[in-house]
Amino acid sequence: MNVNEAVDRLKEKGYKTTGKRKDILEYFEEANGYRTAKDLIQHMESNYEGISFDTVYRNLHLYDEIGILEATELNGEKQFRLNCTDHHHHHFICNDCGKTKEIEVCPMDEIENTLTNYAIEGHKFEIYGLCPMCQSR
């Protein structure tokens, strides 16, 4: 998802696109991986002195709820990235820097064969470790 698609989704769901909301989206578009609310607040403070945690958390929750951001738990903290909408895939997530790499293989292809009498409503598959750059540090 890119900023324009995210803005369109906000409008479709009846939400306004404020300068802060657009800046949050631009931050995640440039982030290339999962980022914490604290990372976002530090970024936003340069343009919005005294921005509140409530404002940031409220927008992160909204974006997650309407499918603009996806969330994961990394190192005991909830982290966010722009939702991938172009095709179905999963991620390797670096435990150190939060960068992601797409994984094209989906284990659900095999799992669905063993759960023939079950109604699967969704799934999430993530692999955690260290990316090559973090390994070399």
Q: Would you kindly provide a written description of the structure presented here, covering whatever features stand out?
A:
This protein has 137 residues and is α+β, with helices and mostly antiparallel strands. The protein is 42% helix and 20% strand. It is built from 6 helices and 6 strands. It has helices at 3-12, 19-31, 37-45, 53-65, 108-114, 132-136, and strands spanning 35-36, 69-74, 77-82, 90-94, 100-103, 126-129. The protein has a 3-stranded antiparallel sheet with strand order 1-3-2. A 3-stranded mixed sheet has the order 5-4-6, with no helix packed on it. A hairpin with a 5-residue loop joins β4 (90-94) and β5 (100-103). It is globular, with a radius of gyration of 17 Å.
Quick gist of this model?
The chain is α+β, with helices and mostly antiparallel strands. It contains six helices and six strands.
